[in-house]
Amino acid sequence: MKKIMILIIAVLLVVTFPLYAVFFLPGVGGKPTKEDRADYARRAPNFDGKAFHNEEEVAVMVKDAGEDENTASTKDVRPKTALPVMEPTFSATPAEDDFTVTWFGHSSLLVQVAGKNILLDPVFSEKLSPVSWIGIGRFTPCPVTVSDLPEIDLMILSHDHYDHLDYKVMKEISAKVKRVIVPLGVEAHLRKWKFDMDKVENLAWWEESVGEDGLTVACTPAQHFSGRWLTGRNQTLWASWVLKAGGKQIFYNGDSGFASHYERIHEKYGDFDFALMECGQYNKRWASIHSFPEEGGDAMKILGAHLAMPIHWGAFVLARHAWDDSVERFSRHAEETGLNFITPKIGETVDLTQENLSQFQEKWWREIE
Question: In terms of pTM, does the model score above 0.90?
Answer without folding.
Answer: yes
